[in-house]
Write a structure and sequence with these properties.
Elements: H1 9-21, H2 33-49, H3 54-71, H4 75-78, H5 94-97, E1 130-134, H6 150-154, E2 160-164, E3 168-170, E4 176-177, E5 182-185, E6 191-194, E7 199-202, E8 205-210, E9 213-217, E10 223-228, E11 231-235, E12 243-246, E13 249-254, E14 257-261, E15 266-269, E16 273-278, E17 281-283, E18 285-287, E19 289-291, E20 304-308, E21 311-312, E22 316-318, E23 322-324, E24 327-331, E25 334-335, E26 343-346, E27 350-354, E28 357-359, E29 370-372, H7 377-380, E30 385-388, E31 391-393, H8 423-426
Length: about 450
């Protein structure tokens, strides 16, 4: 049997035209030559980043989790360092194990860029650039941003590793448009993006967003906004997502605490791919994650996203995530709260759920983890939605469909995910960390 969800070359040619045809609706008031070139470059990167063997990527991810937990089985391996206050630092999943228990992390910040797993594992961010220190939390000039502000940092063309001089509360006057090859690294400071507009990652690649609090985000009004040192232009109204990925590739979002945004907490749409969302803590929100914005946009068939080690906490309602068209590996997450459903979708996405813990709400009508939209039973039963090693609690149940995973791994020996009983350990440190210089995080 051929691998699940393999995109054929003929579709890639079709996608090239489709991608540019819809670009004019991308909250860009004037789709100038600048945006045309950026969209074309992004389209090429999306196609380049697409993994023709997603099953192999799943197997590699699960192998890394198994190795990390085996190494954590001895006391000596747990003691990578002492945390501030004398407590022991315990790295409980393979991403954190790569860096979090090192007391010298501040001198080796760029090590983080080599720690991602899953489909976003190649995201390099600003690893090849210099450090840029944010010293000013203001955001008063959208066309000529002040040096030392986050807006001035993220629009630069050169790769940058962006850090913060101190604790900050940043209110974005309008959406923050992030250029390629940027790492926003909040370690060592308590950084809140709140009370203003969203972070937009549009038609770019290689972005890492790490260790921030993002909450109470509102729609922006648009206007003249700079997106690079050489270009600014008219933007239309932004949605009010926490983080919006649009035609982006090689993206890693890690250790973010998100809540209370006007639209989604994290949206990935319009051909975005090669994405990992990990170690995040999500609370107090309705439409949590949207992967694929339209049933009509088949370009999202290239979308491949890993959702791992996240804690879906109090006050969440639905879309954790909701998927159209693409391929999503939902692995070792802790779903402790939802009001309607956890994982939903339409337009035949592939959803592989492995080793998650699903705790259903008290409502007897909301026990089902899954929700499929706009398709009769005869259609959605052909979609590949599989549950393996998930821990179902309080009456939770996952309605499977499509072919079983066994037999789909013709070129790779399937490595099983750690079962849902391990999730509390794997997600123990989800959300923004309190990292202090000289101590493990």
């Amino acid at each position: 049997m051929e691998c699940l969800h393999v995109i054929r070359p003929s579709f890639l040619i079709f996608f090239s035209g489709l991608f540019l045809a819809v670009a004019v609706s991308a909250n860009i008031g004037d789709f100038s030559d600048h945006w045309q070139k950026r969209a074309e470059a992004a389209q090429a990167k999306v196609i380049e980043s697409y993994n023709p063997d997603p099953n192999g990527a799943i197997s590699d991810f699960n192998k890394a989790v198994n190795i990390a937990l085996e190494k954590n089985s001895t006391r000596r391996d747990l003691l990578a360092g002492k945390r501030r206050g004398g407590g022991l630092c315990v790295a409980t999943n393979p991403i954190d194990r790569c860096w979090r228990c090192r007391s010298d992390w501040v001198r080796n910040r760029r090590r983080l860029a080599f720690c991602a797993k899953g489909f976003g594992r190649n995201a390099m961010g600003g690893v090849r650039g210099r450090y840029y220190v944010i010293t000013d939390p203001s955001d008063s000039d959208l066309v000529n941003p002040k040096p030392g502000t986050i807006r001035h940092a993220v629009i630069q063309d050169a790769p940058l590793w962006i850090v913060f001089a101190r604790d900050m509360i940043i209110r974005l006057t309008e959406e923050l448009i992030v250029n390629s090859h940027k790492t926003i690294d909040g370690r060592g400071a308590n950084i809140h993006i709140t009370g203003g507009a969203q972070i937009t990652v549009q038609y770019v690649q290689h972005v890492i967003i790490h260790n921030l609090h993002i909450h109470h985000i509102n729609p922006g009004n648009g206007g003249m906004i700079r997106d690079s040192p050489t270009h600014y232009g008219i933007r239309t109204r932004s949605d009010g997502d926490g983080i919006s990925l649009y035609g982006a590739s090689n993206i890693w979002i890690d250790h973010i605490s998100l809540s209370n945004c006007a639209d989604g907490l994290i949206d990935a749409i319009m051909g975005s791919t090669a994405i990992t969302i990990s170690n995040c803590h999500l609370t107090n929100h309705d439409d949590v994650m949207l992967f694929g914005a339209s049933d009509a946009y088949s370009g999202d068939a290239l979308m491949q996203i890993t959702v791992a080690f996240n804690h879906y906490g109090r006050g969440l309602v639905q879309r954790m995530p909701r998927v159209r068209w693409g391929f999503v590996h939902v692995v070792n997450n802790d779903y402790t709260h939802w009001l309607m459903y956890a994982v939903g979708g339409s337009q035949h996405p592939t959803v592989i759920s492995q080793g998650n813990r699903y705790i259903a709400p008290p409502n007897i009508y909301a026990k089902e983890v899954t929700k499929r939209d706009y398709a009769p039973d005869s259609v959605w039963k052909q979609w590949t939605w599989r549950s393996e090693g998930d821990l179902m609690m309080n009456g939770a149940f996952f309605v499977e469909s499509g072919e079983p995973l066994v037999g789909s791994f013709s070129r790779h020996e399937m490595i099983k995910a750690k079962p849902g009983s391990f999730v509390t350990r794997l997600t123990r440190y989800a959300g923004a960390l309190n990292c202090r210089i000289g101590f493990p995080c």
